[in-house]
């Protein structure tokens, strides 16, 4: 009898975990279900240990991610080294084949919600290694201080310092990089940082090298309205739920959970900043298709105190969508990937629209069967598809 009950409980528990309804047209659903279920179990377990006061959720996950790091190992095609750029640790991938001319340079920023991952994480090591090989490019994959130990603007400043260092003429020369062919790229939180540093570089009189391109893969671009249609639709999207995204945004600015609570209610922007909503107004910036079934309400005004304590979430360096049209109009050639089943989908779609409105050339690839994290899910067909498009765009435009 006891064994039957135990078995029943086990079956119910397993069924609960396995039951993540995936959107219909996602490829390789069973393989994906295994990944999402594993993550769900890990997140639930670590959320529980956090609730018990044992360890911060993101510290636990990052501890686990350290086991997925690989050393800087060269292979037959690419030399991999580690160094620091202005004190920031970076990993550099140099193609081994001989080159008569100077090479392309790509400055890459990994994702992980400003809390997780590194240039050494196996998925990123593989991506940046293949990028260097296939593009015949020098790829600099930068690290940066992570939350909860470090908060905004630390992440931004680490990345910006490393980029500025790389863009110096003598440094580009040392690595054999053509100063006319340098680009910035990143995915997710890395896409956020890529967009933010690109805006900063074009306004920095000390930086003489001009960026040729920016390539943003499902970037996070604003923390003002956390109830966009993609957030409202996203409760069953793989890997990144709306509530996890809100947690990650709030962790970028503070470990104080009152910010997260206000953000979950979409009640964190005080009245005196409501003029900023025009920059993230999905009602005017999203294509018709994505507005269907949604009714626009501007977020409820929040307390001024929260914004005084954590002004970061209103800062353009954290939320590149807050840049004015004049700044945006000076941005370089832009590539943006968005995915249908991604809470950050509408951030990307709105940036595409705002850049196009001011005449920036944008190539936008939207993956109808895509989801957050797919770009670096190397054993999946969707990752190949996305990486191939990304690399062929860079091949033509960088
Ligand atoms: C090195 O390049 C060759 C030729 O493109 C390729 O066949 C091989 O798989 C590459 N090796 C690695 C480790 O990527
Ligand atoms: C958002 O856009 C809609 C439609 O263009 C407009 O009616 C509304 O006033 C805008 N709201 C804000 C806060 O900008």
Automatic annotation (TrEMBL):
Catalytic residue positions: 188, 342, 372
MF term (GO), any: carboxylic ester hydrolase activity
Keywords assigned: Disulfide bond, Hydrolase
Cellular component annotations (GO), alphabetically ordered: membrane
Keyword Disulfide bond: yes
Record has Endoplasmic reticulum as a keyword: no
Residue ranges annotated for the Alpha/beta hydrolase fold-3 domain, each copy included: 106-260, 315-375
Stated family: Belongs to the 'GDXG' lipolytic enzyme family.
Protein name: Alpha/beta hydrolase fold-3 domain-containing protein
Annotated organism of origin: Peromyscus maniculatus bairdii
Encoding gene (name): Aadac
């Amino acid at each position: 009898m006891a064994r039957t009950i135990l078995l029943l409980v086990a079956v119910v528990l397993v069924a609960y975990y396995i039951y993540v309804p995936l959107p219909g047209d996602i490829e390789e659903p069973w393989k994906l279900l295994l990944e999402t279920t594993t993550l769900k179990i890990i997140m639930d377990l670590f959320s529980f240990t956090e609730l018990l006061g044992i360890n911060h959720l993101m510290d636990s996950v990052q501890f686990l991610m350290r086991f997925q790091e690989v050393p800087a190992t060269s292979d037959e095609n690419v030399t991999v080294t580690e160094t620091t750029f202005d004190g920031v640790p970076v990993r550099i991938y140099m193609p081994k084949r001989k080159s008569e001319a100077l090479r392309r340079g790509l400055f890459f920023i990994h994702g992980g919600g400003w809390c997780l991952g590194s240039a050494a994480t196996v998925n990123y090591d593989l991506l940046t290694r293949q990028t260097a090989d296939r593009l015949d490019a020098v790829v600099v994959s930068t690290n940066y201080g992570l939350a909860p130990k470090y908060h905004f603007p630390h992440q931004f400043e680490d990345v910006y310092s490393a980029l500025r260092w790389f863009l110096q003429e003598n440094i580009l020369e040392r690595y054999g990089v053509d100063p006319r062919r340098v680009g910035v790229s990143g995915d997710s939180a890395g896409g956020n940082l890529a967009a933010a540093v690109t805006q900063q570089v074009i306004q920095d009189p000390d930086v003489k090298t001009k960026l040729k391109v920016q390539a943003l893969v499902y970037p996070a671009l604003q923390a003002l309205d956390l109830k966009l249609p993609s957030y409202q639709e996203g409760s069953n999207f793989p890997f990144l739920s709306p509530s996890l995204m809100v947690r990650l945004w709030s962790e970028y600015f503070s470990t104080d959970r009152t910010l997260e609570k206000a953000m979950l209610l979409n009640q964190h922007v005080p009245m005196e900043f409501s003029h900023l909503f025009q920059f993230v107004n999905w009602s005017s910036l999203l294509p018709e298709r994505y507005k269907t079934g949604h009714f626009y309400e501007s977020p409820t005004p929040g307390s001024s105190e929260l914004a005084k304590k954590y002004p970061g979430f209103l800062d353009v360096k954290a939320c590149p969508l807050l840049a004015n049209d004049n700044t945006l109009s000076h941005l370089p050639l832009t590539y943006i990937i968005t995915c249908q089943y991604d809470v950050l989908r509408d951030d990307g779609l709105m940036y595409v629209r705002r850049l196009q409105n001011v005449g920036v050339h944008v190539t936008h690839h939207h993956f109808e069967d895509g989801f957050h994290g797919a770009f670096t899910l190397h054993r999946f067909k969707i990752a190949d598809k996305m990486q191939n498009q990304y690399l062929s765009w860079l091949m033509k435009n960088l």
